[in-house]
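Design review, sub-item: ligand-bound model
Attendees: FS, YL, KQ
YL presented the inputs for the NAP complex:
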Amino acid sequence: MNPIQVGLLGIGTVGSGTFSVLQRNQAEIRRRAGRGIEITMVADLDVARAQSLVGPNVRVVKDAREVIANPDIDIVIELIGGYGIARQLVMEAIAAGKHVVTANKALLAVHGTEIFAAAHARGVMVAFEAAVAGGIPIIKALREGLTANSIQWIAGIINGTTNFILSEMRDKGLDFAVVLKEAQRLGYAEADPTFDIEGVDAAHKATIMSAIAFGIPVQFDKAYVEGITRLTAQDIQYAGQLGYRIKLLGITKRSVDARSGELRGVELRVHPALVPMKRLLANVEGAMNAVMVQGDAVGTTLYYGKGAGSEPTASAVIADLVDITRLHTADAAQRVPHLAFQPDAMSDLPVLPMREIVTSYYLRLRVADQAGVLAQVTGILADAGISIDAMLQREADEVVAAGQVAQTDLIILTHDTREGTMDDALARMQALPSVLQPITRIRKEELA
Ligand SMILES: NC(=O)c1ccc[n+]([C@@H]2O[C@H](COP(=O)([O-])OP(=O)(O)OC[C@H]3O[C@@H](n4cnc5c(N)ncnc54)[C@H](OP(=O)(O)O)[C@@H]3O)[C@@H](O)[C@H]2O)c1
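KQ shared the predicted structure:
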């Protein structure tokens, strides 16, 4: 049988890795797929550079639409990125009856509903293993390997840049801004790191996993997103003293009312979180990624590996190419649904507003070192029904000028409470004259 012909849009970091891994391992990939897979056409803005990467036997064009219009191409790989031209090209490829492979989490998290509906109507596949956690086959695990389970929750370290920064902050005791500069110098953070450090990239990936885990539409606009820019080396150190590491987690969770047992909705949130040091996830260091999934039947499973990079991401892109090569002649009903659940069996379970989520907390209050302050603070927590799990008191580092009141850090770990209850209690504590600085609140996830 002739090889299946693939058109590649964008030959940058992931595109070039995809081309070279496909070439290097072509014989083995053919034996697995049952048919050769060849990139026969490439579109990139820099035609000369692209041509030098793929050699003379591959046609290189500047206009991606030429690739889509080529009737010999069965699969289009979109590796341009962003929501602009990439969205148009993906929609046009679907309309032209091409199967699509993409690593573009931003596009799918924001426009996935439209894209998957168009693909379903046209009878083509849109595959996106590379969009979440790079080389880790987490989409396959969730959609196929864990299909027997009612997924309870997923918690992942799904952004290598921020995990690298947090690891360095802890190891070297440095603050965020210093480590960010170093990460940029080493190539771990981009010149404009906003999407990574503000948690947006992780939220794109969490949004996609949430849809697949619970059979709900992709709803990036409902995700709570908080990055790592306000974390201090001091909080990382205090967390360590209490037996925790701070990680930026992407979390999605089935939320059940503790009393009635009723399903309330889905939590979808990205924020820094204290994770017990003894959990494997707390020990994922540097730029590595890991995703923990809790299923009712299987229990806890953990997936670890490189979440970015040219060839790790290419590994996922090519896995999708092989799947499509095997399945594209099959009846559409035999394929794995895009979002794991049949399109007519999607759930309208709401994504809960942040005030409705339930978790535990780390609080740090810089207070005046005076009698009665502790009683005021714990009194407010008790009034709100928030119980304390552990507490530390540490003399503040800052040197206090003569005549000024001495300061101390109160560090409190709480048990589970509703976020809205905690917000209200925080507002009351912040208003106390003895609380001298904005209170630091970091959520805590036991991941038990
Ligand atoms: N890098 C990773 O490790 C990684 C991991 C997981 C997922 N992803 C995702 O994979 C996608 C690609 O990322 P990347 O890192 O490979 O990006 P990249 O290195 O910037 O590559 C994008 C390529 O697309 C080209 N391009 C831009 N506009 C184009 C157009 N209109 N037509 C044809 N080509 C065009 C660019 O050319 P110019 O350079 O000439 O503009 C560049 O060669 C993104 O969605 C990203 O989020 C990346």
